[in-house]
């Protein structure tokens, strides 16, 4: 029996540096934006993340993509 991956949702996660701790290590915050079309290409997704990141007051450390999918038995 074959298994098919069915995309359910995609979330954009911005990792922002909000300062440093007492040891000088960076401290991060995250901003999540859900309900993004899973069909969006990685290039477009990155551009969206960079655009939204440019609106933030904190510096963006990284743009992350989190996909959720269901595995469905075909038969």
From TrEMBL:
It comes from Schwartzia succinivorans DSM 10502. This is DUF1659 domain-containing protein. It holds the Pfam family DUF1659. It comes from the Bacteria. Residues 2-73 form the DUF1659 domain. InterPro entries: DUF1659 (IPR012454).
